Amino acid sequence: MPDPQFASPFSDFTDQVFQHLRRSDQRRWAGAYLAGLLITPGKKSVRRLAGAVSASPTAVQSLRQFVSLSPWDWEPVMDQLTRWAEGHGPATTWAIGRAVLPKRGDRSVGVHRYFDPGTGRTLNCQLGLGAFLCIGGLQVPVEWRLLLPAPWTEDPQLRRRARIPDEVRHRPLWAQALDLVDTLEARTAPTPAPVVADMSDDPDTALLLRGLSQRARDFVVAVPPHLKVLPIGERTANGPEPVSARAHISQGNTDTVEVTTADGRKQELPVQSVLVRLPGARPGATQEYPYRLFTEVLPDGRPATLWLTSLTHRRLDNVASLATNRHGTTAAVASMERHFGLLDFEGRSFPGWYHHMTLVSAAYTYQRLTHRPVPRHLPCCPAPHVCTAPERLHMAGH
To answer: Domain with 85 in it: what CATH number?
Structure first.
């Protein structure tokens, strides 16, 4: 019999998250895949997941069928995952983060050459954009978008090979980020949680900022140095002339603020800030509220990340603390890579990629918000579970 202490939370979680899967066998294999991600140490290949959760010789084929070919809709699963996560506390921020998934060859859906600012390298990879809820200092992924370069959506053969739905088209990074925000707004309870994102390498960040402002969604966004801003207080015949954010930040005031990171650590930082507006307001529109441009002042004089926020009514230390949430997003993605199999899937088809990202997100969110292992005897598995080794009954590496 399952250990009551552990069986109930895991069973309740899988029952809620996978309730919209139409067939009972899909729901069972979803639970089995999820359990495999949680208890299999090391590489999370489908074969190793199957060996961890089932004695059936056909388990490998069934799991592979479920994640790659079975026609189940991942959106209701992510919807339920979001609702389950919200049940553990209010989200203080919505963070937008990236997952860079290196690939060999050109068969994986959306694979392309991408310069990764985090590593300073150009990679052959898939690029995912995720929405994370920050709950109690933890960041958990509840939605994803696969960025498809134009060739993947314009070539009929590539579309057919990767099973890309007819309605899916190429959309730039800023548009995908807005789509994630719209999805969370439709899915979650009303909340003032600001959007935190690092868009410092996106030349079209201004379009994201405009979109967030039009949605009345507060934000703390890292922006490129060349972003054009309008100084406040300067008067010329035609109004202030736009200048780059990097050039204008030197006109701001410097204050020492105490920043609280997502993990609760406190540190004092010198931060420079100045109020600005964005160019491009519609003719005849009322004057928009100003934004705050700010950056950390590094002791060696190196350029630091520039941030723009709509939260001008908040204290600078509070806003600067929100900016540190980007490190929490990066850490969450790294943990999913190391311990939850984020990189251990070919991802050749569009549905397969979303299925895998959904299951990895569910496993990570469950473990982070409950800190519980799966039951000693897995009631979710379609075939008898034969693993009894203690080291496979607890999450590997957590």
So the answer is: 3.90.350.10
| Number of domains within the chain | 1
Whole-model pTM? Answer: 0.89
Rounded-to-integer distance, Cα 220 and Cα 190, Å: 19
Whether residue 388 is contained in a domain is answered as no
pLDDT of residue 287: 52
Which pLDDT does position 239 carry in this prediction? Answer: 66
Please tell me the predicted confidence (pLDDT) of residue 284.
43
Backbone angles phi, psi at 284, to 5 degrees: 85, -5
So what's the pLDDT on residue 288?
66
For residue 3, what are its two tokens? 């250990």
> In 3D, which of 24, 36, 16 has the Cα closest to residue 374?
36
Q: What pLDDT does residue 353 have? A: 96
Instruction: Print the domain residue range for 106.
Output: 4-370
Residue at 382 is within a domain: no
Collect the ranges in the chain with pLDDT lower than 50: 1-7, 237, 283-286, 379-380, 382-398
In a domain, 391, yes or no: no
